[in-house]
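Re: the request from the purification team.
They wanted to know what the chain is likely to look like in 3D before they choose a buffer screen. I agreed to run a prediction and write the result into the notebook, where they can find it.
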Amino acid sequence: GRLRVQKDRARAALDVQWLKVADAEWRLRADLREAYFRWHALTERSARLAELIDQVSRIDETAEGLAAAGSLGRAQARLIHIELVGRRAELLRVQLEADLARVGVLGLIGLAPDAAIELMEPSLATLASPMNAVDASPETLHSTSTELALLRGRYELAEETLRLAIQQQYPDLTLGLGPGSEGNDTRVGIGLSLPIPLFNRNAQAIAAA
């Protein structure tokens, strides 16, 4: 009857809420991994740039000495210095991006930007995690995608909502109890209610479902 349909719809609605939570958690984990690996890549790039700048700085000092001795043209020495300045500017930009990426990682974790926490480099086990595996086959997506599971749950909820709307077309028998009296006798009355829709067949609710 209608009560069973209402229970089925309530269960479907609860499933949808659980699937929403699971999908939101999975998306947060994916965003966190992406932000974490972006921070690590920027940190590694910053370290490599610092090493490059150290080497170019030594070359620049040598070029300045050669230019002063007349063994190297001033224009050539100037080009090396310009390269050094450009690399230093690039390092500052990458360091800023790395700092912003770290703030993003801490924000996803739920920590303040100035939290005294050190982010560790990813290990080989982390890089080999199944979450990093690229498998976009239909079978894998069908069984593991929380987004698809949520869509299926919403479809089931829509089906149960339609079933309930159709069920509400038909009269719902209700039983009521009420006290009564006749003379000096106190009695309990039993009433039955059977509404019969003559014109409204719940068409609007069915169309909306």
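For the purification team: The chain has six helices and two strands.
Please add any questions underneath this entry.
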